[in-house]
Amino acid sequence: MSTCFTLPQLGWRGFFQTQLSFEELESMHPVRISEHHRNQYHYLSQDGEGILAIHPNMPPMTVGDWVLLDEQGQFNRLLERQSYFSRKASGSKVQEQSIASNVDTVFIVASLNADFNLSRIERYLALTHDAQCDPVVVLTKADQCDDIDQYLDPLRKLDHHLMIEVVNALDSDSLKGLHALCKSGQTIALLGSSGVGKSTLVNTLRGLGADDSAASATQGVREDDSKGRHTTTSRQLHFLPQGGLLLDTPGMRELQLADCEEGLQHTFSDITELAKGCRFNDCTHQGEPDCAVNQAIDDGDLELRRLQSYLKLQREQALNAATLAEKRAGDRALGKFYRNVQSDMRALKNR
Ligand SMILES: Nc1nc2c(ncn2[C@@H]2O[C@H](COP(=O)(O)OP(=O)(O)OP(=O)(O)O)[C@@H](O)[C@H]2O)c(=O)[nH]1
Ligand SMILES: [Mg+2]
Ligand SMILES: [Zn+2]
To answer: Domain residue spans in the chain?
Structure first.
């Protein structure tokens, strides 16, 4: 027997409700995708958990999506998303890969050790801002760190308004601040490299120990290492009994930005603000005369590392955005070609 949920507990709100017609309100059941497998989706609904077989006529869907099922439990349609995360898929081909949808808050998880990397956090911040979600930086393994300030000080300097939580992911007492952020109906996605403790956080927030049968696998208890270095291999939406939904994701080494201009402007607002003082409108801040950004570096008001990180992400996103636009145009042309061929075939058949 699976637990029943109320729709608001699952994140249902006016934004989705208003997409339904009167007829649909009467006859359709909204369900929320919680897992994506090769041949099926798992979902959470008012009646508990369920499974939806994937059909070729369904649009590509992702964890967090709201879907309408008809009275027979058949797929009817995908509802418009309130927020959407994608990344450039790994490898050389530029292709978007969806990560999650309808997320309110992102826990950007990083560990307080040699893996800590400010530029990587900036990358996640750009992605989070672009999806119009609220970021919280969660620093794990505080119990194994002697000098937390060494990491905290530069992080605070990035953005004074940034929410930061320092935790031991194995200790539920240290997660009180995070618990308070997991409000009923709120969806929180955890992003961060492999091994930083995302699944450990999910387990502890769910009140489960690593050896609990319902717990997600974590690196410490992984038995078979042959499948690669990522412990979590698929995305999963977990319902928290005390409120909120947590979306665990596999660590992403190759998180590349695509189409993320707004997120970058937001994340590096200090630089875009300074750039208004440059002599040239299209200043690239790489040695032009009267460059306010370079001046700020000379004056010690801006870190060279931060400018370099900004320029790198900007190049990357511009390149990927251009290739994606080309690819989408190509896909559209191909789609049109197929439709034309199909209608020609029908015309032939009906002669
Ligand atoms: N001491 C300590 N160990 C931690 C902490 N957080 C995570 N760990 C350990 O770090 C290891 C990796 O944690 P996971 O939760 O599997 O990491 P993950 O981010 O889910 O990794 P992927 O699923 O591969 O993306 C496990 O052995 C955890 O027990 C922490 O705050 N303190
Ligand atoms: Mg994991
Ligand atoms: Zn400049």
So the answer is: 8-78, 84-248, 261-343
To test ligand 1's pocket by mutation, which of 219, 223, 234, 249 has the most ligand atoms within 8 angstroms of CB? 219
CATH number for domain 84-248, candidates 3.40.50.150, 3.40.50.300, 3.40.640.10, 2.60.40.1940:
3.40.50.300
Report, as an integer, the average pLDDT of 177-189.
94
Degrees, nearest 5: CA angle 328-106-211: 115
Buried b (16+ CB within 10 A) or exposed e, 201-222: bbbbbbeeebeeeebbebbeee
CATH-assigned architecture of domain 261-343? Orthogonal Bundle (1.10)
- pLDDT tens digit sequence for 31-68: 999 999 889 999 999 999 999 999 988 999 999 999 99
Helix (H, G, I), strand (E, B) or coil at 203: helix
Q: What's the CATH architecture for 8-78?
A: Beta Barrel (2.40)
Element (H, E) at 336: helix 304-349
Contacts of 121 (CB under 8 A, 6+ apart): 108, 110, 137, 155, 158
Atom 10 of ligand 1, nearest CA residue:
197
Q: Which amino acid is at 71?
A: E
**Predicted TM-score of the model (pTM):** 0.82
> Degrees (nearest 5) of the Cα angle 203, 88, 202?
5
Query: Residues enclosing ligand 1, CB less than 6 A?
Result: 140-141, 143-144, 168-170, 192, 194-200, 218-220, 230-232, 250-251
